[in-house]
């Protein structure tokens, strides 16, 4: 089994090119996924801040309109 596995990973002498191509495909995809998740988290945080700001503004406006 070890010889067959070694032969697979050596790819008939083209292992360097094959594994480099695999790495150059997987690495950008992984970076894209990480960037997307970070951007999503930042966007959700910004939306939460805006919603909280709007609630505070509406609450303050309602307090000003209510007679003492």
UniProtKB/TrEMBL annotation:
Top-level lineage group: Bacteria
Cross-referenced InterPro entries: Haem_export_protD_CcmD, Heme_exporter_D
| Recorded coiled-coil stretches | none
Q: Which residues cross the membrane?
A: 16-39
For this UniProt entry, what is the primary localization, expressed as one broad class?
Answer: membrane
Identify its membrane topology class: Single-pass membrane protein
| Localisation | Cell inner membrane
Going by the UniProt record, its keywords in alphabetical order are: Cell inner membrane, Cell membrane, Cytochrome c-type biogenesis, Membrane, Transmembrane, Transmembrane helix, Transport
Q: Which GO terms describe its biological process?
A: cytochrome c biosynthetic process; cytochrome complex assembly; heme transport
Pfam family of the protein (one): CcmD
Q: Give the protein's biological function.
A: Required for the export of heme to the periplasm for the biogenesis of c-type cytochromes.
Q: Which family does it belong to?
A: Belongs to the CcmD/CycX/HelD family.
Q: PANTHER family attached here?
A: HEME EXPORTER PROTEIN D
The protein here is known as Heme exporter protein D
């Amino acid at each position: 089994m070890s010889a067959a596995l070694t032969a697979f990973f050596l790819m008939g002498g083209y292992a360097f090119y094959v594994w480099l191509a695999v790495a150059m495909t997987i690495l950008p995809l992984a970076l894209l996924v990480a960037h997307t998740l970070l951007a999503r988290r930042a966007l959700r945080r910004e939306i939460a801040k805006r919603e909280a700001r709007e609630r505070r503004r509406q609450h303050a406006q309602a307090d000003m309109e209510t007679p003492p």
